[in-house]
């Protein structure tokens, strides 16, 4: 792989943990491949479905470890269904359809109740760097 598609999925810019992890990967990737092209697709500059008050309230309920009920439960189910549709099989299928088969992912999903978020964050950063390096090793002959 000589080029990279970087899909930015967080609206939080420099406050985003997921962007920081992805940036660790991209930095390692660029260091190892000086001529590589990194294309950035920022989903927050593209058209996205509305995220209204019920959906935002449901997000905070989930993140705080509480149980969803009523309108919040319905709103959150709609959000998670759409996200799964876009980012899981649909996104993977789309990538594979256009010829991208080398697909890896790293997750860091802290919650208010996450016991050791700093350790999980460090592990995600390390996995991102390891993926960047293993991609280099597996592609250079």
Which percent bin holds the helix content?
Answer: 55-70%
Strand content: 5-15%
Sheet with most strands: 2 strands, parallel
C-alpha end-to-end distance: 12 Å
How many structural domains are formed by the residues? 1
CATH class: Alpha Beta
The value of Rg in angstroms is 17 Å
Structural class: mainly alpha
Can you tell me the CATH architecture?
3-Layer(aba) Sandwich
Strand order of the largest sheet: 1-2
The name of the CATH topology is Rossmann fold
Oligomer: single chain
Mean pLDDT score, rounded? 78
Return residue spans where pLDDT drops below 50 for at least 5 consecutive residues: 137-141
Q: Please count the beta strands (DSSP E, at least 2 residues each).
A: 2
- Tertiary shape: globular
Order of helices and strands: EHEHHH
Number of helical segments with 4 or more residues? 4
Please characterize this protein's 3D structure.
- With 141 residues, this protein is mainly alpha-helical.
- It has a single domain, classed as Rossmann fold (3-Layer(aba) Sandwich), CATH 3.40.50.
- It has four helices and two strands.
- A two-stranded parallel sheet has the order 1-2.
- α1 (17-32) links the parallel β1 (3-8) and β2.
- The protein is globular and about 50 Å long.
- The relative contact order is 0.16.
- Mean pLDDT is 78; it is low at 137-141.
Helices and strands, with pairings:
Elements: E1 3-8, H1 17-32, E2 37-42, H2 53-63, H3 70-97, H4 117-139
Parallel strand pairs: 1-2
State the gist of this model.
The chain has 141 residues and is mainly alpha-helical. It has helices spanning 17-32, 53-63, 70-97, 117-139, and strands at 3-8, 37-42.
């Amino acid at each position: 792989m000589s080029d990279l598609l970087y899909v930015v999925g967080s609206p939080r810019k420099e406050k985003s943990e997921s962007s920081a992890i992805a940036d660790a990967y991209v930095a390692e990737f660029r260091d190892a491949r000086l001529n590589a092209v990194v294309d950035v697709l920022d989903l927050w500059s593209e058209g996205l479905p509305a995220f209204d008050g019920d959906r935002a309230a449901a997000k905070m309920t989930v993140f705080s470890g509480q149980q969803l009920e009523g309108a919040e439960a319905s709103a959150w189910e709609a959000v998670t269904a759409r996200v799964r549709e876009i980012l899981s099989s649909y996104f993977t299928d789309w990538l594979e359809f256009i010829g991208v088969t080398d697909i890896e992912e790293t997750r860091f999903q802290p919650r208010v109740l996450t016991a050791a978020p700093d350790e999980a964050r460090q592990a995600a950063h390390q996995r991102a760097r390891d993926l960047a390096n293993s991609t280099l090793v597996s592609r250079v002959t």
